[in-house]
Request: fold
Amino acid sequence: MAFKKDDVIIIEPREIFVGKKDAPVTLMEFGEYENEDCAKANEIVKQLLEEYEGKIRFNFRHFPLTLIHQRSLKASESAVAAAQEGKFWEMHNVLFSNRRNLGTTSLKLHSKEAGVKNKKFLDDLVNGVYGWQVQDDLKEGIDRGVKDLPAFFVNGEPFKGKPTFENLSKMIDTALRKAKRKPAAKQRA
Reply:
């Protein structure tokens, strides 16, 4: 007698946002958890979310530079694993706070700090259960021309320049003005 394996629906990184669902501006970042510049950008994004509350939503996409940061891939997978319990953003911030300590066993400890309850968390990491989701992000980043991290997009348009609060604010302000001119148009993420 054969048993039918249950289909498991995995929440993809492209579906995980923080901020108002119907915000007129979508800020997307391709980054990784061992990168110092991405960690600095994470703090800037927190400021932007506060400053533009209700006007922007943020989506983090994984772009692990494994040739430089060997632990970045598993760290990204751990964030996707946490997302399955609605704990992506908690894990995301814990990973940045502990970016110099991202070994697989440490990731298990970080998941507890983020509030993840999955008893198979470590097994899922070791077995690469969420590897495809990270690879999909990586492929999309490459298709969008991402080369350096962090890489930002505002309503699908690539951000050029140094990702400071001021520079990103200017592009967000421009996108907000465009959104006011065409309120009926759908915003592309």
